Amino acid sequence: MDFGFTAEDQVFRTEARDWLSEHASVGIDRRSWERTLGKGGWIGLGWSEGGYGNRTASLTQQVAWAEEYARSSAPPRSGHIGENLLAPTLVAHGTDEQKARFLPAIAAGDELWCQGYSEPGAGSDLAGIRTKAERGSDGVYRVTGQKIWTSLAHESDWCFVLARTEPDSVRHHGLSFLLVAMDQPGRIEVRPIRQLTGTSEFNEVFFDGAHARVEHVVGGAGDGWRVAMSLLGFERGVSTLAQQVGFAAELGRVVAAAVESGAVDDPVVRERLVRQWAELRVMRWNALRTLRSSGDAGASSVAKLLWGGWHQRLGELAMQVRGPAAGVGPVGWSSSAPYELDPFQHLFLFSRADTIYGGSDQVQRTIIAERVLGLPKEPKGVV
What we know:
By secondary structure, the chain is an alpha+beta fold. It has three domains: 101 residues, Acyl-CoA dehydrogenase/oxidase, N-terminal domain (Butyryl-Coa Dehydrogenase, subunit A, domain 1, Orthogonal Bundle), CATH 1.10.540.10; 109 residues, Beta Barrel (Butyryl-CoA Dehydrogenase, subunit A, domain 2); 137 residues, Butyryl-CoA Dehydrogenase, subunit A, domain 3. Helices cover 45% and strands 13% of the residues. A four-stranded mixed beta sheet has the order 1-4-5-8. It has a four-stranded antiparallel beta sheet with strand order 2-3-7-6, with no helix packed on it. A hairpin with a 4-residue loop joins strand 2 and strand 3. Helix 4 packs across helix 6 and helix 9 crosses helix 10. The longest helix is centred in the C-terminal third of the chain and has 26 residues.
């Protein structure tokens, strides 16, 4: 596709850059920042539904905003799960009442969301989930089960939960997509998961009879798998291009370190640096080429395969460039407090999970094989 930025897009980009420069401040808490974005009208640029407090923007303008945000010193987003995953899912599958209830609060930055998909026994194999939701005579579902690797659950107001609502159903049958309020003391418990980096963005979430109202079932009872798969298609797209801006900055720091340390004189290191640069350019052009196919399982799976492995290799290259200093242990480590890592150590350790979370490489290859190439389906074990 011919993906060029028009003069109007450049004006939009300049407006976005100037606004971020004026409003993004170091130290602002993430919830306050989401509300600042909401007041500025910068949440929900890609929604096809109007009237919910979000300004409209063309696809190229959405890319411009995402890239300028990635280049700025703005805080990490807490509202991206609600804005980029739940909102387009509600636009596609939600009722008018659901849209009116939830979209304005997301657009204003007032309500933050997390995603209740993976479970201890059903991570990449999402169809194997066991969390149950039983509907009572009062029209309320009681959700019981455990979710894991739930990003930002500790600061979220709501969680969209994939649960089994039909007793004795198996695999992708009998699932429903529920909207569950997180403020239910005694019914929901969030436990942070400490990662290799010492931080805890991920959580375990335990549901013990948590309530979900029947009118908060998206797409209808028993049709959760279709809704869930639709949502996963929104997980790539414009955000991939913004992610690549961050990747380019990380690569630039690795190149600078290689020059400073003299590691760049090693022809093997030079070859790896050039390869990383070239592969990043390929990823950008691939993302631009497939941008309008958001929701295409094949395109999103290819993108995930590309960036997951690329980022892992960058972390390994960063360690190679650091040389002996890369092996220096964390500073100030204790069992009760996060330890300190330099940026390259953090890059290396965090990127080890890149080929697992969001759908492992093996799962992405299976999706491409079965849904794009039409190969025979992989045999499943006995359920």
